[in-house]
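Ticket reopened. Same input as before:
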Amino acid sequence: MPERTLAPFYCSGGTRTSHHTGIMFAFLAAAVDVTDQTSIWEQVDQKRLQATVEKLASFNTRNTNTPELGQACDWVASQFQEIPGLQVETIRYTLPSSRRVPVTKEVPEVVATLPGKTDRTLLVGGHVDTINMQADIATGRAPGANDDASGVALTLELARLMAKHQWNQTIKFVAFSGEEQGLVGSTALAKIAHAQKWNLEAVLSNDMVGNSSNKAGQKDSKHVRVFSEEGATHESRELARVVEWLVRHNIKGFGVKLVFRRDRFGRGGDHTPFVEQGFSAVRFVEVHEEYSRQHTPDDLPQYVDFSYLANNVRANAVALASLAQAGPAPTDVRIVRDQSQDTTIHWKSTPGTRYALYWRETTSPVWESYREVGETNEAKVTLVNKDDHVFAVGAVGGIPQEAK
Ligand SMILES: [Zn+2]
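Engineering reply: fixed in the latest deploy. New output:
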């Protein structure tokens, strides 16, 4: 069993690398039989991302109050419909009148579903709507190339890549609307998910994932921030931590910067309504924002770094592909409280599911060690003291559950 390694989902042995826009991908030995899926994130099409962002930015606005929002949703739905295997719906919800909404109305957003072998579900999305805070709602130019055509382009590209394969988990690809009016579209969908008891295991919201530098001279095209908060009924932070681990071990030269917060100060995102409904949800966002272009006519495609956006697609693809083929998470994960230099953990397992242990120093925000242990419900790590470490167990590729 490999230890202190690696990618949980490659069966072919050895290490294979390839070069794309300066990023090296290392495919490492391991576990689930998905040889034909290892190239998923080699196939990200940067030109297609650019074309999507340019198309969406060509609408004068995509403000949820305007007819252009419906036109943009129709275009996004048409793009999903071109992908074999997706079930595409345009759902409608009520946008109530408020400071940014002159009149209450019904508005659309787009949900495309890739059915898996089970009803266990993952959701990834960006918001298609835009806003110009300084101009008239109906006529003010609001191209929203980075905020958040970048997230919608990423979501469409992921749908194209993921739909080529069959997964254990069902995957929903979403173009949210009403984000700029107070997360209204994501709130509507999160309530549907809760009311219909979706078996939703993870939500990846991508909002502003294409800007790698700002006017202050800061630049970082090698990381993406993933925001997560902790709460009583969800495990967003464990989702964030495993995303960081998966990206670190599968994409060389690109990484996740974890931020253990709900979101940025004074700002919101479409992951939060899902957290509030009890789901695990995180937000991907660029490291250095350029605030002067947000919600203005200056949020233009020419300021989007499409190579950086492509890397963010790859980071999401690594996470989705791993989570989408993981077996169910273990339950009742317990540390044996003996006085020993070794650590023994046991859990309730599901037949046919292979498991992996993770551990880290109590002060470390990220997983430091990993070991696959196969189809079992107990494992011992010798000479690693339980008192000094946090341990967790996950189905291989899935979200680890902390051992208590
Ligand atoms: Zn946004």
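The radius of gyration is 21 Å. The longest helix spans residues 306-325. Please confirm and we'll close it.
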